[in-house]
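User: Hi! I'm working on a homework problem where we have to compare a predicted structure to a textbook description. Could you give me the structure for the chain below?
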Amino acid sequence: MDRQPEKIQSFDPLLSPLEGTNLIEASAGTGKTYTITCLFLRLILEKRLTVNDILVVTYTVAATEELRDRIRKKIREAMEAYAQGDSQDLFLKGLIQKVPDAEDAMSLLRSSLRDFDEASIFTIHSFCQRTLHESAFESGSLFDTELEPEQETGLMEEIVQDFWRRHFYEAPVEFVSYALRKKYSPSYFLKLLKKGISHPDLKIIPETKPVSAVNAEPFYRP
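Assistant: Happy to help. Predicted structure tokens:
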């Protein structure tokens, strides 16, 4: 029996489930940052999570700073709403109705605001680097491992140029000529390096000796 696909529902930050895995599809300018701040606040009040229990991951440093500012501001707005017992913000107004215990809510919000500097709001790269540092023994990585988000445009080109200098500058003329005819240029090796990084388990076979160790013979004998 074929499984019927689940029906797509309109998103409501106040009623969206907080359990399981949920996918929210949103195009540019539809309020993704606002949605994240609302869900963050609900997790604090409805699930009683601390800021250390919630992970927010985004793409850029600027986006993380905006998220931090917006979430902190939303927590303060929620505290004011609970202090007054009402709010002009429809989301906060609905949240007060869902979580009516003002004293308990104020206690959770104050704790979150006090500990907010420890909130786990990262870029993808900074989160991965932190995870590697915290689990260095389990992952087998070095303690001073650094992630280079722009390595494809800088570091990888430098590696290829260094490889070309080492293996082609002093190689036999016949070898270099053959490589160029086959279009084995630096750009070719750059593409090869990118493929290798995306598939770290690949092995190069067969193993070959460096070009300098090859006993090159002339193509024509007198």
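For your comparison, note the following. Residues 61-84 form the longest helix (24 residues). Residues 213-222 have pLDDT under 50 and may be disordered. Good luck with the assignment!
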